[in-house]
Specification:
Largest sheet: none
Structural class: mainly alpha
Radius of gyration: 24 Å
Strand content: under 5%
Number of strands: 0
Number of domains: 3
């Protein structure tokens, strides 16, 4: 019996590994369809409390509440798109000035570094940063086009999800009710905190006279949905524009990085834990691994959705007796791995 039990465990482990690899390959292969759908699903969960408020408190008909919510979502996406396009236009208009500043910085660096002693041609050393800048510009343009195209698909999915969700409400109890409540609380709290963070970052950079200040504020809002890594990236994001901006003092450059970093530090480590608490009950290592896995599968959008997706998986694992140890592992409760 012991040998048979060991063989069954080995077979089960192998099947789980194969199934995980197959599911991961499927998620990566179908990302063009699944990413907009899953993103619209979480947006619909975030907007459903607004529909409930309109229907219960203001006595608005359900179809009108869904229509108003869709208009609100489209308006937000349109404003965000206009802000990104305006910032990209301003960046293109000042491209020559930025290029001169980049060349000046490169010349200063080459004057200090003895590249010729190492057999490096200074002219080739100049071409490398310029090629990197052009490659980055092309990548940013492609990302904007992809974001706009996915935004239209997300809106189509969102319309059908909101219309379908308004016809049948999820029962307050049960597994799906718990999933909905937890995810909605997370999205609501995270949206408010991220909006405050993005607004403060945009105001600070605008007061300092940094180009694309509100665009960086928008990026701080979006990247704040990525735990830990997002705040670091959004803090360092204005650094290239700050360095290539002419006639900017060293104090302004330091403040442009230090003040948004202080905002991210206070909100992320002081305010957010007090407001949200341990709502999702996920260990930081679990969140980090989820960011790596979903970022590999679905890119930046996968990193945005990594935390709520992992929280949903944990709730589902808690419901099964055999999968409950996995849920305890997600929460970091190693002492309960052998519990019931």
């Amino acid at each position: 019996m012991s040998e048979q039990t060991a063989d069954r465990r080995i077979q089960t482990t192998c099947l789980v590994i194969l199934a995980t690899v197959a599911v991961g390959a499927t998620l990566w292969w179908l990302q063009s369809v699944l990413v907009p759908f899953v993103l619209s699903l979480f947006i619909a969960l975030g907007l459903s409390p607004l529909i409930e408020y309109l229907t219960t408190k203001l006595r608005v008909p359900k179809w009108a509440a869904v229509l108003l919510t869709l208009i609100f979502a489209v308006a937000l996406l349109t404003l965000a798109g206009m802000l990104v396009m305006t910032s990209a236009t301003r960046l293109a208009a000042n491209a020559s000035t930025y290029q001169e500043q980049v060349l000046s910085l490169i010349d200063s660096a080459l004057a200090i570094l003895p590249l010729q002693d190492f057999g490096v041609n200074p002219d080739e050393a100049i071409r490398l940063p310029l090629n990197a800048i052009s490659t980055a510009a092309i990548a940013i343009a492609n990302a904007i086009v992809s974001l706009v195209s996915q935004g239209s698909i997300v809106l189509i999915f969102l319309m059908f999800l909101l219309l379908g969700g308004s016809a049948r409400q999820t029962p307050p109890g049960g597994m799906w009710g718990e999933v909905k409540n937890r995810v909605q609380k997370y999205i609501a709290f995270k949206f408010i905190i991220s909006a405050v963070t993005g607004l403060l970052v945009g105001i600070i950079l605008s007061v300092l006279g940094i180009e694309l200040a509100m665009a960086f504020g928008l990026m701080a809002f979006l990247l704040n949905f990525i735990p830990s890594i997002g705040s670091i990236v959004s803090t360092l994001l204005p650094l290239p524009v700050v360095l290539v901006s002419p006639e900017m003092s060293v104090l302004t450059m330091v403040l442009a990085i230090a003040l948004p970093g202080a905002v991210q530090l206070v909100i992320g480590n002081v305010i957010e834990p007090k407001v949200m608490g341990d709502e999702l009950d996920l260990h930081p290592v679990t969140i980090l691994l989820a960011l790596m896995i979903w970022g590999t599968l679905w890119g930046v959008v996968g990193m945005l959705l990594a935390t709520p997706i992992t929280a949903v998986m944990k709730i589902l694992f808690e419901r099964g007796e055999r999968t409950r140890p996995i849920a305890n592992l997600f929460a970091g409760r190693l002492d309960d791995l052998h519990g019931a």
